[in-house]
Design brief:
single chain
Amino acid sequence: MKKRNRLRAMKKRQRMVLLAVVAWIVFGVVAALVIVSRTTEEDSGVTVQVTPAALSEAAVKGEAVFNANCAECHGPNAAGTNLGPPLIHDIYNPGHHSDQAFYLAAANGVRAHHWPYGDMPAQSQVSREEVGLVIRYIRELQEANGIVAKSY
């Protein structure tokens, strides 16, 4: 009788160990899938379709400054890349991110808060006047793409 009880107890422990091992394997597979899916999303970045605009003279100058200093991360036409978010996006409408927010971002950098790209470093190589031209470029592109000021 004792031998039989010991055998039952041993089989029960074996089943519990097997169940625990299976649970850990399932957990590991699920965790790996989550990590891979998040990495893929971040690697691909968020981009948007941008309709080019007929630009004012100031915005054309701003486009040149943007292309030389900002496009590497924010993409051509500010459409976004895997390194930085699209600026032609409703999050950046003038009612949510004022022109002053852009001046501050260029001067001081920005802590990541809307997107998973990490912090943006200060862009000290760009003068305040040049930032103003970039803002003009961004705002004209935004307007051409239906992004207008909204109050929050």
